[in-house]
Amino acid sequence: DPVLALEGVTKTYNKGKPGAVEVLRGVDLHVARGEVVALVAPSGAGKSTLLHIAGLLDTPDTGSVRIGGDEMVGLSDRRRTIVRRNDVGFVYQFHHLLPEFSAVENIVLPQLARGVSRAEAQIRALDLMARVGVAERADHRPAAMSGGEQQRVAFCRALANEPRLLLADEPTGNLDPETSDTVFEALMDLVRSTGLSALIATHNMALAARMDRVLRLDKGVLGAG
Ligand code: ADP
Ligand code: ADP
């Protein structure tokens, strides 16, 4: 089974009302185990909507969303939350780290919420941080770190609970071009070394070209990049 499979996914906001916006018109998308797929789309094309549906933060009007072969459409909110927590890691353009906690605590907390012991969570957090080169920032709060460092910590947090799927929305879009390249490289190394499957939205064609496959979202339909 693919790790992520969307079939015939449609989504219209304000359906049946004057302001209706047809965003997705029948999207089919598969991400295989260990595959890293780039999602390229002009602004407003429905990229965030697609990622939110894939990450179970939103539901399609019609179609199927399977994670690890299991159908997610029709599950209760409670069940969807469990799958989201256990199987999906999110990275956004902005880091969304908790400002009052240190970097390492930001990576430990989601693990504690899952019932991992503090000692184990700490070891895993520091290991992840070392792998993206921010171990020496463990005790710093987000505000005391550079943008690139904050994003690296956000990658570690996304991977803290060993998800099987990573969804990223412009993960380096907030950084200057030079920093963006090295931080993106760190993310790719981390994804490759864990064998994680990923769907990564980016406007940067050079970055997209480094992934296994490029998909283009245009007028609500997906095509090959
Ligand atoms: P992208 O991430 O590609 O910029 P989005 O998925 O955020 O695109 O949005 C696609 C379209 O749907 C845009 O025209 C946007 O204005 C519209 N849209 C997004 N969210 C909503 C919403 N909650 N209600 C109504 N329209 C929305
Ligand atoms: P945008 O693409 O509009 O800039 P962000 O990339 O900053 O938004 O991501 C914030 C989004 O995360 C919100 O749209 C929100 O719906 C979504 N979200 C809601 N709950 C969760 C959650 N539990 N984990 C991750 N993201 C969530």
From TrEMBL:
<keyword id="KW-1003">Cell membrane</keyword>
<dbReference type="GO" id="GO:0098796">
    <property type="term" value="C:membrane protein complex"/>
</dbReference>
<dbReference type="GO" id="GO:0005524">
    <property type="term" value="F:ATP binding"/>
</dbReference>
<dbReference type="GO" id="GO:0089705">
    <property type="term" value="P:protein localization to outer membrane"/>
</dbReference>
<protein>
    <submittedName>
        <fullName>Lipoprotein-releasing system ATP-binding protein</fullName>
    </submittedName>
</protein>
<dbReference type="GO" id="GO:0005886">
    <property type="term" value="C:plasma membrane"/>
</dbReference>
<dbReference type="GO" id="GO:0016887">
    <property type="term" value="F:ATP hydrolysis activity"/>
</dbReference>
<feature type="domain" description="ABC transporter">
    <location>
        <begin position="4"/>
        <end position="225"/>
    </location>
</feature>
<keyword id="KW-0813">Transport</keyword>
<comment type="similarity">
    <text>Belongs to the ABC transporter superfamily. Macrolide exporter (TC 3.A.1.122) family.</text>
</comment>
<dbReference type="InterPro" id="IPR027417">
    <property type="entry name" value="P-loop_NTPase"/>
</dbReference>
<dbReference type="GO" id="GO:0022857">
    <property type="term" value="F:transmembrane transporter activity"/>
</dbReference>
<keyword id="KW-0547">Nucleotide-binding</keyword>
<dbReference type="InterPro" id="IPR003593">
    <property type="entry name" value="AAA+_ATPase"/>
</dbReference>
<keyword id="KW-0472">Membrane</keyword>
<dbReference type="InterPro" id="IPR017871">
    <property type="entry name" value="ABC_transporter-like_CS"/>
</dbReference>
<keyword id="KW-0997">Cell inner membrane</keyword>
<dbReference type="InterPro" id="IPR003439">
    <property type="entry name" value="ABC_transporter-like_ATP-bd"/>
</dbReference>
<dbReference type="Pfam" id="PF00005">
    <property type="entry name" value="ABC_tran"/>
</dbReference>
<dbReference type="InterPro" id="IPR017911">
    <property type="entry name" value="MacB-like_ATP-bd"/>
</dbReference>
<keyword id="KW-0449">Lipoprotein</keyword>
<keyword id="KW-0067">ATP-binding</keyword>
<dbReference type="GO" id="GO:0044874">
    <property type="term" value="P:lipoprotein localization to outer membrane"/>
</dbReference>
<dbReference type="InterPro" id="IPR015854">
    <property type="entry name" value="ABC_transpr_LolD-like"/>
</dbReference>
